[in-house]
Write a structure and sequence with these properties.
Elements (H helix, E strand, L loop, with lengths): L2 H11 L5 H20 L4 H8 L2 H13 L1 H15 L5 E3 L7 E5 L5 E6 L5 E4 L6 E7 L2 E7 L2 H10 L4 E6 L5 E5 L5 E4 L2 E9 L5 E14 L5 E14 L5 E4 L2 E9 L5 E6 L3 E5 L5 E6 L5 E6 L5 E3 L6 E6 L5 E6 L9
Parallel strand pairs: 2-6, 2-8, 3-7, 3-9, 8-10, 9-11, 10-11, 11-12, 12-13, 12-14, 13-15, 14-16, 15-17, 16-20, 17-21, 18-20, 19-21
Antiparallel strand pairs: 1-4, 4-7, 5-6
Helix pairs in contact: 1-2, 1-4, 5-6
Length: 334
């Protein structure tokens, strides 16, 4: 039996669950199949190890039936676990790449005061933690069991904390699912990448040479961000950028959400959305920008001129209103 057949029969047996719960189950088993194939097994061998789809569905429904009792127990255990179970994971040697992947946990990225890369994390029973260090890269991978992930979503869950030294010159990649990622007061002379689903991205008071952020069904908020290039994308979420100064470019893209800017400054500005408005102010003179705006079912007003800087704003079913403010405070403390 291949993966598609197994999942189809499994979903058929779980028809009484909510669509969101069935989606989580399917994603969990798809991930198990990928892990098995990466370890050298065939897709059919991995699926055979699960058992019959009907039996798996019955087991899930049985466990689901006692989920409320498990949640109460989880909350009690969680209050006990947050004191003493959290531990630090650190590379033994200097690294150029930091990759942190967690599941269904909020992630906070902050500055390391002692200059060490560090991940603070409290694992629970059933969690799988993989820590690897090779070729200048430090990888921390967390995978939660399906029901642990559900309980974490119900109970709030403890956050993961990633500490990065000031002026880190490498690449930092942070990934989570169904939760938000927050970064504040960072100075990274390399690249910061943040990826999540169904969660918010927030970056505040940061100096980042390169930043890219991506989420789905979540909001993106950038405030007091300085650097070379900054890009943020979402689907079904609003994007806000305030007092951001980039030496090369700022690119914001979403769908079914508005884009709001306040005092952003870059020689190449690009804003794209659908079913949402694009509004706000650019720090600088309008005559310095060659501005272009396009929409359907809305109006366009950009007070730009024909200068060497670029500004592009594109939407559908929304208006575009962008003005310019000379002397807008975009400076950040170094």
């Amino acid at each position: 039996m291949n993966k598609e057949t197994f999942l189809w029969r499994l979903m058929e047996g779980l028809s009484q669950l909510e669509e969101s719960e069935r989606t989580q189950v399917a994603a969990y088993y798809q991930e198990l199949v990928l892990d098995g194939v990466e370890s050298g097994k065939t897709e059919e061998e991995v699926v055979a190890g699960f058992g019959e789809p009907a039996a798996v569905a019955r087991q899930i429904l049985d466990e689901r039936g006692s989920l409320r009792e498990k949640e109460k127990k989880f909350k009690r255990e969680y209050e006990q676990s947050i004191n003493g179970e959290e531990r630090a994971y650190c590379p033994k040697e200097p690294v150029e790449t930091v990759l942190v992947q967690v599941r269904d946990r909020r992630v906070e990225v902050r500055t390391s005061e002692d200059g060490m890369v560090r991940v603070w994390f409290a694992a629970r029973e059933g969690d799988r933690i993989s820590v690897d260090e090779a070729n200048g890269a430090f990888r921390f991978i967390h995978k939660a069991s399906f029901f642990n992930g559900m309980l974490l979503n119900f109970g709030g869950g403890k956050k993961a904390v990633v500490e990065i030294p000031r002026h880190f010159e490498g690449t930092v990649c942070i990934q989570t699912t169904n939760s938000r990622i927050e970064a504040e007061d960072l100075q990274i002379d390399g690249r910061l990448q943040m990826i999540t689903t169904n969660g918010r991205l927030q970056v505040r008071d940061c100096a980042l040479m390169m930043f890219s952020g991506k989420t789905s069904n979540g909001r993106v908020a950038l405030e007091n961000v300085a650097g070379v290039m900054c890009g943020a994308a979402s689907s079904n979420g609003r994007i806000e950028a305030k007092n951001c100064r980039l030496s090369e470019g700022l690119r914001l893209e979403t769908s079914n959400g508005a884009i709001h800017i306040d005092g952003v400054d870059a020689p190449d500005l690009s804003f794209r959305t659908s079913n949402g408005a694009i509004k706000g102010t650019v720090a600088g003179r309008g005559q310095d920008y060659s501005a272009k705006g396009s929409t359907t079912n809305g109006h366009v007003r950009i007070d730009g001129g024909g200068g060497p800087k670029k500004l592009l704003a594109v939407t559908t079913n929304g208006s575009i209103e962008i003005g310019f403010q000379e002397g807008h405070p975009t400076d950040m403390s170094e």
